[in-house]
Amino acid sequence: MRDAHRVVITGLGIVSPLGIGWRDNWGAALAGRSATRLITRFDTSAYACKIACEVEGFDPADFELDRRAIRRMDRASQFAVAAAKLAVEDAGITIEDGGVRAGTVISTGNGASETFEENHRALLERGPDRASPLMVPMTIVNMSAGHVSMQLGVRGPSACIVTACASGNHGIGEAAAIIRRGAADVMIAGGTEAGVTPYCMAGLDATRALSRRNDAPERASRPFDVDRDGFVSAEGAGVLVLESLEHALDRGAEIVCELRGYGASSDAYHLTEPDPSGRWQVAAMRAALERGDLEASEVDYVNAHGTSTPAGDPVEIGAIRQLVGDERATRLMVSSTKSMHGHGMGAAGGFEAVLAALAVREDRVPPTINVDALDEACAGVDHVLGTPRDARVDVALSNSFGFGGHNAVLAFSKLRDE
Amino acid sequence: MSTTGRVRVVMTGIGVACPLGIGREEMWRSVVAGRSGAGLITLFDTSDSEVRIACEVDGFDPTDFIDRKAARRMDRYAQLAVAAARLAVSDAGLPIDNDGAGIGAIIGNGGSGTISREEQHRIMLERGPDRVSPFAIPLSVANMGAGQVSIELGLRGPVTAMCTACAAGTDAIGTAAEVIRRGDARSMLAGGGDTLISPYFVAGFDAMRVLSHRNDDPAGAARPFDQDRDGFLVGEAGAVVVLERLDDAVARGAGIICEVAGYGASSDGYHLTDPDPSGAPQARAVQAALDDAGIAPGDVDHVNAHGGASQPGDPAEVRMLQIVLGEEVAARVAVSATKSMHGHCMGATGALEAAITGLAIRESILPPTINLHTVDPACAGVDHVANVARPADIRVALSASYGLGGHNSVLALTRYANGAS
Questions:
Q1: What distance in Å separates the CA atoms of residue A15 and residue B248, rounded to the nearest whole number?
Q2: Active-site positions of A?
Q3: What is the CA B195 to chain-centroid distance, rounded?
Q4: Which 8-state DSSP code applies to residue B234?
Q5: Alpha-carbon distances of A317 from A60, B80, B411, rounded to whole Å
Q6: B156 in the same domain as B62
Q7: How far is it, in rounded angstroms, from Cα B317 to Cα B326?
Q8: B227 and B299 assigned to the same domain
Q9: Do A147 and A81 contact (CB within 8 A), yes or no?
Q10: What share of chain A is helix, strand, coil (3-state, %, to 5)?
Q11: I need a surface site. Which of A239, A314, A351, B382 has the fewest CB within 10 A?
């Protein structure tokens, strides 16, 4: 039988600018804390944008990785392995039988940019005969999945799906599909990014997508606010343990929530701008609900893509209103946690899946911070602003929309007996 | 749907811009003729490089497929992907209705937009961060092959880039078939676009000692399974196939190339660069593809091998086939490594090889492994299709890819004969 398996989330692992582990992240998100700071990872004196959300206090050696293994991983892979280990520990799962029924999908946006930049600079300065045998394996975007497979001993399907800012959601959605069709019982799935680097920041700033509010970093990421001026780039990884419901029940796992559906569509519109009609974002949300056998009216909370760009935010709110209707939309809770952890690019879907799953489990909605004056063009939904909201969350959506027009939506719900 | 309720998926179009030619027919003529697509590298100055050979796509003009302004905003890898996608849609005669909602794309990639990324990074180092192009990121990222295919062709179903290094094209086709089976699209463009013929990747691969150094004999350099093999040739390609539901293909009278009957994937979880020498993870991927297709090992007629021409890799692959299929079956299975002709096209290679395998089934011709003059005794035990194409009745074929990072991916392709597949 195909598609015979329900998929549940049993473990949360996150290394983000808000903290390391889901407890620190959840605490910071409920406290409405901003993680945006002046960049410390490189000298920004020649940069117009000098702010980002960096992961502070991260030491890969804290995750039972030996020095040699660490040296062979780009920072993006270090984040991914750390988050995967945290997720597996949180799930209390033992990888059995050589890991043949467990797989991984670790997505990314830019991949190992720091490794590329260092090696490319060395190549330009010293010539090809000094090239390192590790530069290719450390640079290619799939290597975080490879490292998770090696470090955790998972030997089922292993992949990396790249869709820019939507990578994490597509990765989690496809990982769930692998369980649904029976090709694995357990998947370690999420996204990673380590793009606070000279090249990535120069390139992103050149697209005019970044906030340049260098004088007030903590106020820079302000989705839906009338004075928003772009997104704040973030690094880190967010990883889930997904299991078939039977597998989770058999081992007596604690279930965070059910991953009900995954919907994907494409704008086919523009390299970096969303289709202003929002209709393909609606199509992706609708597909996630249909696949999860859910009605739009059942959605309690949307963790929005909400990057804080002038063009993107109103399109998404418009799409949410189209999905549920204007009347229902006024009672639909919406927040963008990117206001706090920044835009994790390939990790964004992973960060936000962790927070959306916690919202469903805890019946608390984390806020959008920094909204001093709501942009009229973003009105029409129940924005959760400034402080968290205690409210029943049976069904939540997490939206991600990427450069290139990739739309991916995940639908979560409390586990129901059916 | 078949009686088991499983949606059957068929390949109805092939588009390639590859070292063996542009378009399905030119490529297939080259395969049947056993032509090498290798030559001296022209894409960058190799004067300080020890490796000066590769398999480039000769005569590729992106403006044959894409308007000039759009083409300038694409890395070469995305141009190759878009060209291949257009050729595939045309080959399939696939109608893309006004909004393209039922059609998606999965485009494999291994090296991201490395040519553009190297160029833009060099500009940043030499002239400062404010001189980087506004298109630097869209040119550099690995998803823009997929994104540009959707934009250029108007596809609004699920669109992603599959990035599993050398296995990406195979995973793209396998996953796209699953997207159709689970009802998320009616048809999918699946394949890869990649070029790693750049200073960074050639230097990096050469530092790993995996590339052939036979600079004085490019056409004879790629020699999988031969005792004198000395590594692979880096290649580039766009290779895209059209997949659709069998029912739809039959209803619209499409020419069916083959059925995508099964897909299996596994990972080594073993080492950064070396494959697990036991071959067990690769064997699990082959077995999973056969199980998915409901095919017994004894029914396999042909394998398009990964055949990376590495010293340890080629014998391990042959041994693995002997384990999964049994020695007796393996001895009569026709094995070809078409990388001997088109080189290692990385994120596109699995798709190119699946396309060649589909055509082998359709045309009843086994493609050759060229440059196979003396089979390495360690690679013996299968029926190598050495040097010349051979007519054969092929009902079941496997196309196998094994990627850096331990990704193992296998497609089971079968002949479609009026519903009696």
A1: 46
A2: 165, 305, 343
A3: 12
A4: B
A5: 39, 36, 42
A6: yes
A7: 13
A8: no
A9: yes
A10: 40, 20, 40
A11: A314
Average pLDDT, stretch B32-49? 97
Structural domain range at position B126: 9-251
Its CATH architecture, for the domain A262-413, is: 3-Layer(aba) Sandwich (3.40)
Q: Are residues B34 and B154 in the same domain?
A: yes
Q: Confirm or reject contact between B295 and chain A (CB < 8 A).
A: no
- Cβ contacts from A onto B, under 8 A: 292
**Residue pLDDT, tens place only, B377-421:** 999 999 999 999 999 999 999 999 999 999 999 999 999 986 544
Q: Is B206–A269 a contact, with Cβ atoms under 8 angstroms apart?
A: no
ipTM for the whole complex: 0.96
Give me the CATH number covering residue B388.
3.40.47.10
In a domain, B256, yes or no: no
Task: Write down the mean pLDDT value for chain A.
Answer: 97
pLDDT, one tens digit per residue, over B252-307 is 999 999 999 999 999 999 988 888 888 899 999 999 999 999 999 999 999 999 99
B306 is catalytic: yes
Residue A3 has pLDDT above 80, yes or no: no
Say which amino acid occupies B235.
Answer: G
Overall average pLDDT of the B93-116 stretch:
95
Query: Which of A266, A282, A286 has the most B C-beta neighbours within 10 Å, making it the best mutation to test the interface with B?
Result: A266
Domain count, chain B: 2
pLDDT of residue B289: 98
Phi and psi angles of residue B129, each rounded to the nearest 5 degrees, phi first: -65, -25
Three-state secondary structure call for residue B120? helix
Confidence category of residue A27, pLDDT binned at 50, 70, 90: very high
Same domain, B39 and B172: yes
Nearest to B142 among A111, A153, A291 (CB): A111
- Judge whether residue B98 has pLDDT over 80: no
The reply to whether residue B266 touches residue A158, judged by beta carbons under 8 angstroms, is: yes
Q: Residue B143: its chain A contacts at CB < 8 A?
A: 109, 162-164, 167, 402-404, 406
Query: What residues have CB less than 8 Å from B106, skipping those under 6 apart?
Result: B146, B158, B159, B160, B161, B162, B172, B173, B175, B176, B179, B188, B189, B190, B191
Pinpoint the residues of chain A covered by CATH 3.40.47.10.
Answer: 7-250, 262-413
Q: How far does A381 lie from chain B, in Å, by closest CA?
A: 26
A177:B122 CB<8 A? no
Q: How far apart are CA B237 and CA A216, in angstroms?
A: 47
Contacts of A150 in chain B (CB under 8 A): 268-272, 406
Q: Which residues of B touch A132 (CB under 8 A)?
A: 204, 207
CB contact under 8 A, B209 and A207: no
Residues shown for chain A:
418
Q: Tell me which of B52, B89, B137 to substitute to probe the interface with A (most A C-beta atoms closer than 10 Å).
A: B137
Cβ A224 vs Cβ A374: under 8 Å: yes
Q: Which residue does chain A place closest to B124, by CA atoms? A: A199
- Is B84 inside any structural domain? yes
Q: What angle do CA B293, B295, B299 make, to 5 degrees?
A: 140
